[in-house]
Amino acid sequence: MMKKSRFFMITAMAGLLFTSCSDDDNDTPFAPGVGISVSGDTFSEAEGPVTLTFTSTEAFGTDVVLTYEVTGSATSGEDFGALPGTLTLATGETSTTLELTLNDDDEVESSEAIIITLTAVDGGTDFIGSANSLTLTLTDNDSFPFENGILVLHEGNFGAGNASVSFVNDDLSLVQNGIFKEVNEVDAWGDTAQSMTFNGDMAYIVVNNSQKIEVVDRYTFESVGTIGGPGETDFLNPRYMAVANGKGYVTNWGDGSNPDDDFVAVLNLDNNTVESTIAVAEGPERILAKDDVLYVAHQGGFGQNNIVSVIDAVTNAVTTTITVADRPNSMQLVNDELWVLSGGNPAWTGNETAGQLDKVNTTSNTVETTLTFAQTEHPGFLSQNDDNLYYYMSSSIFSMGVTDTALPTAADITDLNFYDMSINEGKLFGVDAKNFLSNGSLEVYDLGDNSLLTSEEVSIIPTGVYFNGDFDF
Fold it and tell me: Which UniProt keywords are present, listed alphabetically (predicted)?
């Protein structure tokens, strides 16, 4: 049964509308409609109050109570101030406002929705307009301490247990050394950190002389667990890791006195255990995944080798090997083609051989193109930027396009002392270990004009640069 107040209000409105028309006007009387609006649809939690406006197409002849409901993924009282659920549109007015207070907390969250829906005007639905609901997207202004920046891994001194990780923010204005130690409140955590691999939110730090992998949250660097360790048999001289088919694959040199005990450890990433091993030829080093296929460059470990093993990550079996040149040290995938850079044997071996760059067809797993360096040239650190390849040789950086048919003859950047390097978004990041006793440095170059952007002091023996992006909810 209609409330008397609404009955009289509707009657009054109808009378007003009818008397405003001429006797011969056949137009249907127009009933007022109330809607909701806001200036924008996305707001940061730090923006402060948001004004919601409730507007009627006509003024009412009496105070009108507007009733609304609040839904969505955002939580009332936590993400925003609790709302009363009603407000009054005064007599003769056509609009009223409601202030929505956003709570600026310290929690890192995904974007959330606040939905305001007008459900009644003076207890009924007769005067609800078409714009009766709106959705606000509430974005977070917080971030994890180590997202959007660079992680620099440091070996530390062999046997000293002083491996470390530094964080450099994305605009290169801040360097934080020793973040693992600081976050996890430990004095020492590893002997000779070798490499780091990301998988989802996790970072896996291969610690060579501690025979283990430290698993941390890559954005907070809080410890999640340890795989292996001194006295354990999971690893033996672990080197590098890749992820394929939901598993982790870690290259191991094995015992230096035994050329036949090298292997790739297969990790269960759900419980952080080694579930099996794959026997491989001597000296597995860098490992790269393409879908469910793994490519392992056999640099030689304690000896020397000249092959790339191909592993099926579904069957965990070596399906073939690809012969390249002596000491393949780095690989890159460009347009589904595998580029393998071999350093060749250095002069001190007594059997010096030339470096070589090979392009491998990943469908047939055969070498399609070979570019050979001079016998005394020993390149390393193959990196990629779009369709260009970069490598380090003779204290210099050289570059070439993937369609080039000859090696470059002139260097792009000279007088360097890199221990490793990586490229990201048109910038070259090289680490200099200096004298291997004092702190090293991170050198950043703009590949547009080959200029040095910054040189930042990091920690002892920096060995790799890893790019940590946005946290992905």
Answer: Calcium, Repeat, Signal
